[in-house]
Amino acid sequence: MIARPAGAGLIAALDTQDPAQAEAWAGALAPHVGLLKLGLEFFVAQGPAAVARLARHRPLFLDLKFHDIPNTVAGAVRSAGALRPAMLTVHAAGGPAMVAAARAAAEEFGADRPAILAVTVLTSMDAATLSATGVSGGPPQQVLRLARLALESGADGLVCSPREVPLLRAAHGPGPLLVVPGIRPACSAAGDQSRTATPEEAAKAGADWLVVGRPITGAPDPAAAAAAIAASLRR
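Request: output the structure for the sequence above.
Response:
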């Protein structure tokens, strides 16, 4: 399983359907980031073989957010694990048995197994959005509820917004890996993200890995943007 970084590590999100674009970004960004994130957009468009080719640049965070019955999720983890990603995601809302099944399937890969990360509440969701789905209490309460469920069921870590990092550290200490999207450098547009913070704020709060997409890949010089964020985390 991937080691915890010293301080906060940087993950570049390669959100594209285009393999040539993903390859160009991966090559340019590899010197400045610890992992490369590939999600549903790329995986569905290009499939496992294209994902595997990008792994030569940097270890992969395969963000597929599995959410199904336990047996199906276990099978999906076995299939995805064959690509040797460093980290895989499942939805904590899938329940204890599903998270436990994902962890058990990951264990079949031995010492090099992927870390199983449980997604708590998507960073695009706010209290009103949660309420529309029948969840009361707002994101902090739901994140804490799902985090406890997931960690007790064998998840190695959590995906949460930067705003919940202090709450999770207070509740669960330094043990769980906290992987944090919704990172927006100062003066960056929030886009479709509702719960955001700057890289420096998230790192100070206790995040282990920061996931940054559009502020890097949408910049005129993505490599320079990634280098600037990485440098800010070393200060």
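The chain has a mean pLDDT of 93.
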